Structure formats: structure tokens, C-alpha cells
Amino acid sequence: MYDERFVTPMRQELTRLGVEELRTPDEVDARLKDAKGTTLVVVNSICGCAARMARPAVAMALTNEHKPDHLTTVFAGQDADATDRARGYFTGYPPSSPQIALMKDGKVVFMLERWQIEGRPADAIAEDLVGAFEEHCK
Questions:
Q1: Taking the CB of residue 119, how many other CB atoms lie within 10 A of it?
Q2: pLDDT tens-digit readout, 70-86
Q3: How does pLDDT run across 28-58, given as a tens digit for each residue?
Q4: 110 pairs with which residues across the strands?
Q5: Which of 40, 42, 43, 47 is catalytic?
Q6: In this model, does residue 4 exceed pLDDT 90?
Q7: Buried-exposed string 62-90: b where 16+ CB fall within 10 A, e elsewhere
Q8: Structural domain boundaries of the chain?
Q9: Closest-CA residue to 121 (of 64, 56, 40)
Q10: pTM strictly above 0.90
């Protein structure tokens, strides 16, 4: 686990955009269990691909006209229990960090795993997210 003083700015990159941070399993369940509408779940991470690609891509995608009803995040490696609980909702997908899921009425309808994030420019990842938003969030 990393020093919270080091991690806080990484958390704030998403929370300042209005993304709700879920730090406990109870918070995850309160937001995801029986969720209606669309929910973005960003599995944040301290890794370079989260810093250079995933978080900037989320910021770019959230400027789109159509976006999820709810924006949430958990932080892998820091809030382990909350992250594990969130991943429990990602049926059929192995855990990865970072990872971005779009859920509709409690089911994953779009997923970006680390292998789809790592090594790609943030704007390309943002395009993938916007495509999912356009398909599922209108």
C-alpha cells in the first residue's frame, strides 16, 4: 500500500470531475447493487498507464454530451476490499488495473481492461468510451 499523501492527487484527478469514490464494500454495494440506469466504474491505479492513459481518457470522454448517469471509482492497491467488491460485479472479466466498466441496470455492457488501455493514447481510449456512452447512455 502506498502513502496516502502520494495517492491523493491520483484520486482527485477523477473526483474533481464529479466521479464518486467508493472506498468500502458497503459503498460499492450501495451504488452498484440493484443500480438503475448507467454507471461508469473506473478501477483507478497508481501505475503509469492509469496516469498517462486511463484517467486522462475518462476526463476527455466525460466532456461528451451523453454520459453515464452515475460516475464511480475504486482505487486498486489502496482500497482493496472496495476494489474486490466492485470487480465482483464484473462477471466474466478478470481483475485488471486500470479497468473501466460501463454498467447498465447492474450489468456490464462495456469493458476496457488493462490490455486495452496500456500502450494506447488517451484520446483513442476516450473514443472507445464515447462510443460506449453513445450506444448505452442516450
A1: 10
A2: 999 999 999 999 999 99
A3: 999 999 999 999 999 999 999 999 999 999 9
A4: 102
A5: 47
A6: no
A7: beeeebbebbbbbbbebbeebbebbbebb
A8: 4-136
A9: 56
A10: yes
Is position 49 annotated as part of the catalytic site?
Answer: yes
Neighbours of 6 (CB within 10 A): 10
What is the dotted CATH code of the domain comprising 4-136?
3.40.30.10
What span, in angstroms and rounded, lies between the C-alpha atoms of 47 and 70? 25
Extract the C-alpha cell encoding 122.
488517451
Q: Which of 40, 42, 49, 126 is catalytic?
A: 49
Closest to 114 measured CA to CA, from 130, 128, 94, 89: 94
DSSP for the chain, please give it: ---HHHHHHHHHHHHTTTPEE--SHHHHHHHHTT--SEEEEEEE-SSHHIIIIIHHHHHHHTTSSS--SEEEEEETTTSHHHHHHHHTTSTT----SSEEEEEETTEEEEEE-HHHHTTS-HHHHHHHHHHHHHHH--
